[in-house]
Design goal:
Layout (H helix, E strand, L loop, with lengths): L2 E4 L5 H10 L3 E5 L10 H20 L10 E6 L4 H11 L3 E4 L5 H7 L3 E6 L13 E5 L21 E4 L7 H8 L3 E4 L4 E3 L2 E2 L1 H12 L1
Helix pairs in contact: 1-2, 1-6, 3-4
């Protein structure tokens, strides 16, 4: 089953709705020039509420196992010390790195990591000790790259990101067969504000 990450979460209402739909990952952006930036203190409140909700939903599911919910912190060229401080403050489960972070940085941070790679006209060289990789057209642009460029990639578990919407997610999964998808602008009414109808449709089409 394809896992689902909803990124750019900025408020409790959206986080709880995504958890209710069965999200596997919620992404919190700690890159200050992003329109989806969230202060760590606020992210801690949101993440805590979503995690508690996921536990309650699991108890109410009548024995049906629900996927665990992971809070992911998105960083770009941040110092190791700052990443660790935010990890601890928010209670993050995973870090997602979009800059020039090295394997030494990943080891020093000491957390499960997703390393993002931008795909242009060709598949970039993918060398990382991160547990996951992410193929993206460029953070938050909403553009789609040529998915056929990564057709057949199986070296590491990977996320597909960039321009995914409820309308094209079925095709994306059929062509690429990603382990997970990452969606932000494709389910929004404005940057950082999720459109719950779009979120619902996305989950329905991925789980179909």
């Amino acid at each position: 089953m394809t896992l689902i990450k909803i990124c750019g979460i900025t408020n409790v209402k959206d986080a709880l709705f995504c958890a209710e739909q069965g999200a596997d990952f919620l992404g919190f952006i700690f890159v200050r020039d992003s329109p989806r930036y969230v202060e760590p203190e606020h992210a801690a409140e949101i993440c805590g509420a979503a995690a508690a909700s996921a536990v309650d939903l699991s108890r109410e599911s009548g024995g049906r196992e629900r996927p665990p919910l992971h809070c992911v912190g998105v960083f770009r060229n941040e110092s190791r010390e700052t990443v660790r401080r935010i990890v601890d403050e928010v209670g993050l489960d995973v870090v997602q790195l979009h800059g020039n972070e090295t394997d030494d940085d990943i080891a020093a941070i000491g957390m499960p990591a997703i390393k993002a790679f931008r795909v242009g006209d060709a598949l970039p060289a993918v060398q990382t000790k991160a547990e996951w990789v992410m193929f993206d057209s460029g953070g938050g642009t909403g553009r789609v790259f040529d998915w056929k460029l990564i057709d057949g990639y199986r070296e590491k578990p990977f996320f597909l990101a960039g321009g995914i919407t409820p309308d094209n997610v079925g095709e994306a999964i059929r062509i690429v067969k990603p382990d997970a998808i990452d969606v932000a602008s494709g389910v929004e009414s404005a940057p950082g504000v999720k459109d719950h109808d779009k979120v619902r449709k996305l989950f329905e089409r991925v789980r179909a």
